[in-house]
Write a structure and sequence with these properties.
This protein is of the alpha+beta class. It has 2 domains: 70 residues; 245 residues, 3-Layer(aba) Sandwich (Beta-lactamase), CATH 3.40.710.10. 42% of the residues lie in helices and 17% in strands. The protein is built from 13 helices and 11 strands. It has a 5-stranded antiparallel β-sheet, sandwiched between helices. A hairpin with a 5-residue loop joins strand 1 and strand 2.
Length: 351
């Protein structure tokens, strides 16, 4: 019995050494590691073989629990935070690397210093002919683009839907906006009219109605496919309205989108320049809808189209095309507290 006790004691001491080498006891705050440390510390030269065996069993079972705990992934490391007020479509897959990429980094260089201060965290001024960058800051950093997303929504709607088809607004589409709606359940409009509501008053329910006309999953997939097609490599669309902060792009990518629209879907730019418009409500007994453009630049002679956007996570966004001294210029501001004046300040600096 004495030899057996000594043998067991030797085993325990070796086990204790190996545990310490593998940092089992270094996990501060872990109840399991504290339990194993207690089991070893209670063994001494006067312990009986039975108490030694009991301690060994405790250590063995504790080690198994620790290893099992290490293999269980933490939910906080694999689940992206999504605002509960925003519609969540689990079938829409967003690459983690894209979402987790830092939204804003150090300022990049600019060819010239602006002649006036701006509040925007991101901005760019770039010529359409030749694509020369005149001014820029963080123009290739991702940012939530809010309702600027609706430019791509309009592209997909115009290129894939029959413009004369009638669509009735549903209560679900109203609910999807989280209270940010401009239309009413039961209103009926053509696809063409909904595109105008989408671009002039930035109608969120129009965005969802257009997407539902195709099937929202398929529609958003086409938005992302079109982005890849026109080399918007840092752009991700999660839903059609821009209410989700997961709709992200860069000022540089949005330049590519406006160039594409100018060449292939110029009607979109024409619509965004309209100051007021009335669309016909085809539902019996329902009133027609008067649209008043929320873009302050609408109606200006030098403004050739663009789109506003705002959610809490993004601040003020605005992408615009201007005619400046005979040249067409793209001005994009993201994360601005005064998007219209920031755009004008940048425009005034262009010689």
């Amino acid at each position: 019995m004495r030899y057996q006790a000594l043998a067991l004691l030797l085993i325990v001491l070796v086990s204790s050494y190996l545990f310490r080498e593998n940092s089992v006891f270094s996990q501060s705050g872990n109840g399991l590691s504290q339990l194993s440390a207690t089991a070893v510390d209670t063994i001494n030269l006067n312990s009986s073989p039975q108490s030694i065996q009991q301690s060994e069993n405790t250590i063995s079972s504790t080690e198994s629990l620790i290893l099992k705990d290490k293999e269980t992934p933490s939910t906080s490391s694999v689940v992206s935070q999504i605002s509960p007020s925003e519609p969540i479509d689990n079938s829409t897959r967003i690459e983690n690397a894209m979402i987790e990429k830092p939204i804003i980094e150090n300022s990049s260089s600019t060819p010239n210093s602006l002649c006036a201060p701006v509040t925007a965290k991101i901005y760019i001024a770039q010529t359409i002919d030749g694509g020369n960058v005149l001014y820029e800051k963080n123009s290739q950093n991702r940012w939530p683009i809010a309702s600027v997303s609706k430019l791509m929504t309009a592209v997909i709607a115009l290129e894939n839907l029959n413009q004369s088809d009638k669509v009735t607004i549903t209560q679900k589409e109203i609910d999807d906006t989280g209270g940010n709606n401009t239309l009413m359940a039961g209103d009926t409009f053509t696809i063409s009219s909904l595109v105008r509501a989408l671009l002039i008053v930035s109608s969120n329910d129009a965005a969802y109605a257009l997407a539902d006309a195709m099937g929202q999953d398929a529609f958003v997939q086409k938005m992302n496919e079109k982005a890849k097609e026109i080399s918007m490599s840092q752009t991700t669309y999660f839903e059609p309205s821009g209410l989700s902060y997961l709709n992200q792009s860069t000022a540089h990518d949005l330049y590519s989108l406006l160039i594409y629209i100018q060449k292939h879907d110029p009607l979109i730019l024409d619509i965004t320049r309209i100051k007021t418009l009335t669309i016909k409500n085809l539902a019996k007994g329902m009133q027609d809808k008067k649209l008043v453009n929320i873009n302050e630049f609408a109606g200006r002679n030098d403004f050739f189209g663009g789109k506003t956007g705002f959610i809490d996570q993004s601040g003020g966004n605005l992408v615009s095309l201007f005619k400046k001294d005979g040249k067409m210029v793209y001005v994009g501001v993201l994360g601005s507290s005064d998007r219209f004046n920031d755009s004008l300040a940048i425009l005034s600096c262009i010689q």
